[in-house]
Every structure is written in C-alpha cells, then in structure tokens.
Amino acid sequence: MERSGENEGQRPPISQILGASFIGTTIEWYDFFLYGTAATLVFGQLFFPTGNQLISTLSALGTFAVGFIIRPLGGIIFGHYGDRLGRKTVLVLTLSMMGVATFLIGLLPTYDAIGVLAPILLVLLRVVQGLGVGGEWGGAALMAVEYAPEDKRGYYGSWPQMGVPAGLLLSTGVFGVVSFLPNDQFLSWGWRVPFLLSIILIGVGLFIRARLLETPSFSEVQESETEAQMPIIDVFRNYPKNVFLAIGARVASDGAFYVFSVFILDYATRTLGLPRPTILLGVALASALELFTIPAFGVISDSTGRRPIYLAGTVLMLILAYPYFLMIQTGSTILVLLASVLGLSIAHATMYGPMSAYFAELFGTRVRYSGVSLGYQLASIIGGGLGPLISTYLVAAASGNFWPVVIWIIGLCIITLVSVLAAAETFQGGEFAAERPDERRTVAEQT
What are the domain boundaries of the chain? Predict the structure, then answer.
C-alpha cells in the first residue's frame, strides 16, 4: 500500500488529480444517464410491451429506480473498502463495473427475441450499474477534496460534480444524434449505439485512474495504522446526526435534477407531444452550462461558506418549480431552453457545486468514504430513483396536469432547507471540521 512518505515525494500534478476525478465521474454518469434516457424513450416498448404505453413507461422507469435503490448498498460495500484499503483501488473497480454493465445492455436481446428473460437481464445489469455508481461518487469526491488546499476545497470538490452534467450532456447528445434516425431504425439498432460506445470511454478512464496515487489524508491514516475496522459502524457511532443531515441536504437537488432531466423527457414528448429533439436540446444545453456554473458556485462557497450558497440554491429551486413547468408547457423552443437552464444550470448547480466539499467536511478521514456515500446514496432513493416514477404516476393521476410534481419538488426543498439550517458551517474548519476529539479518542482506544 502507498504510505504518506511515498505520496509526499511523488505527489502528482493537481491537474492530473482533477482531470481524473472529472473524467472518471463523467464516464460513470454517462453510463448511468444512458439508462434513464433509454428508459423514458425506448425500454418501455422494447422490454415491457404491455400494450399500454403508460404501463410500459412506468415499468421501464421502475427498472430505472432499481439502480437508485441498490446504490446505498454499493455505497456501504465500497465505502467500507474505500475506508479500509484506500480511494484509488475502489475507483478503478467501480468504473470497470459500470462500463461492462453498460456495454452488455447495448447487446441485450429484446422481449420479442427472448421473452421475459430480456427484462430480467436488463434489471440485473441495472443492479450492477447501481452498485458501481453507489461506490463511485464518494471516492471521486474525496480524491479531489482530500488533495485540496484548505481554502480551495469547494473548487476542487466541484470537479467530480461536473462529471454529472458532462455525463448527462454526453449521453443526451449521443441519444439526440441517433434520435434523428427513422423510428424503426432507432428502435431496432440506433438506441444501442450509445451503450456500445461506453467500452471506449471506460478504457480511457481506467488508464487515467490507474496512474493515481492515494490521497494525502488517507495515506496519513495508513501510516499511523488507524484505519477503521468497521467504518459503517464507526460513522454511525461518531457522526449519526451528520449522516441524516447529509441525506436531507441532498434530496432537493437530486429530486429536482431527475425531474428536469429524466421525467421531463417522457412528459414533454408523450403528454405534451413536443418533438423529441427539442427537449433533448434543452437538457443538453443546460448540462453544458453547468460545466461552468458548478465550479463557479464551488469557488464562491470557499469564500462565503457552504450553507449560504446551498440555501440560496434550495430557495431558488422552490421558487422555480411552478414557472419551470409553465415554460415547458408552452412548447416554445426558447422557453423550453430557458426552463432547462434555470432549473439545472442555475438552481441545481448552486446546490451541487459546493456539495462534495460540504459533505466531506462533515466526516473524519477514517470513515469519510462511508459517511459521504451513505448521505449521498440514501438520498438518491427518495429524490432520484423514485422521482421520475412518482412524477409520471402523479401526472397520470392528475389527467396530465403538472401541479402534483410541483408540490413534490417543493416538499423536497423544504426538507433540504431544514437540514441545511440544522447543519453546521464547515468551510473555515482549518483541518477537516469533522476531525473532532470524540473520533480521535475512539482511534486511541482501538490502538
């Protein structure tokens, strides 16, 4: 294993660290978002041909939710090994899992070819995706934040965050290109192309990640031989409040994001009858702009604090929930683009930019991988995985009206507001704010 002395003498350029965090998460989220786009546009017809378009779509979105439900398990498993063995080892494994699963989805026979075995295999591969991404985010975030100078954690931590809009932009862009194919070609082979391209991206990501060294913070833990034996138990022993506050702080950004990037694809095309390329263009444009707004808000949080920025984004999201749908409903290309930009590039980015640094600062080094993974991934079940499914059902129950989804987003924003207000400010903690005497005592007793 790498030791701190080795890392100090061989510390890689920071551009390599940030580039690896960004490229790795981009590839992971490209794989993950491909499934969401395909679930709304094609999986219902190809893997769940019930004869009822709504039921088929709900079934496909149900398998989309499976990935989120399994993500906390991935966070627990890989968080454990990330806190025991290090960040780098786990990041290589999670990227490999995601890539193989995504590539195999592109090769799957449909229901017409092999019957019920097709959706079963689809769900199994979605489970592998969920396990992989469940362990990915925590490690990528910590790889950036634990290398960061004290006054730049928000900025450094924003780099893996940019992987989300980059992955969404890439997946939406590739799907947007193949969506121009005639419908029969799109359904027969066009939708497979984005999944099969994943294998090339994985090769690039693995090459970059394999060259990384362990982070200085974790190397110090290894040097002192104080690695947590059971990180998941220790994180609940020392930081139970922070785990639940992280979950609450996450639900609004996650919930709104998947309404604005996944659910809206089905709502705009099936309910409103908008052209598929129009709504895909809106999501793609907003994702491109987030590549700039996410790091901007990360930088601002380094000077003003995490909480003020996070609270501002939450309030903005709450205010935008209703106007967003009004703009989408007009069918105007300009207003559809504007709605996507305001919802994703501004409101979501304001919360998501400082999130890596904020969550990392809530937990001590020995259990940080487990702590941030639990907070992030448990919230994803409520906001992310169930969001598109719940939203689709609510709109159907309301005869096509969007107001129940607005109420859903507002409710998530209220949970996040309360959680962030109850959490401590962390950005001026010098060393990580969560390195508190209670954890140090626990370490001393174990050693």
Answer: 14-216+226-446
Whether 149 and 11 have beta carbons less than 8 Å apart is answered as no
Identify which of 30-34, 84-88, 272-276 has the greatest average pLDDT.
272-276
Cα–Cα distances (Å) from 28 to 95, 165, 204, 243, 375, in that order, read 6, 11, 12, 24, 19
Q: Which residue would you say has higher pLDDT here, 315 or 176?
A: 315
- For 324-384, the DSSP string reads HHHHHHH--HHHHHHHHIIIIIIIIHHHHTTHHHHHHTTS-GGGHHHHHHHHHHHHHIIII
Query: What is the signed CA dihedral for 23, 25, 27, 30, rounded to 10 degrees?
Result: -130
Does the pLDDT value for residue 415 go beyond 90?
yes
∠ CA 29-33-118, rounded to 5°: 120
Rounded CA separation 317/348 (Å): 7
Asked if pLDDT for residue 315 goes beyond 80, the answer is: yes
Name the token pair of 59: 């079934």
Please tell me the distance from the alpha carbon of residue 254 to that of residue 300, in angstroms, as a whole number. 21
Q: What is the token pair recorded at 356?
A: 């890596």
At 439, list the tokens.
Answer: 């954890």
C-alpha to C-alpha distance for 177 and 154, rounded to whole angstroms? 35
Size (the chain), residues: 447
Which one of 36-45, 356-365, 414-423 scores highest in mean pLDDT? 414-423
Q: Helix, strand, or coil here: 424?
A: coil
Mention the CATH class of domain 14-216+226-446.
mainly alpha
Q: Quote the mean pLDDT of the chain.
A: 85
Nearest to 295 by CA among 351, 353, 350, 352: 353
Q: Distance between CA 447 and CA 445 in Å, rounded?
A: 6
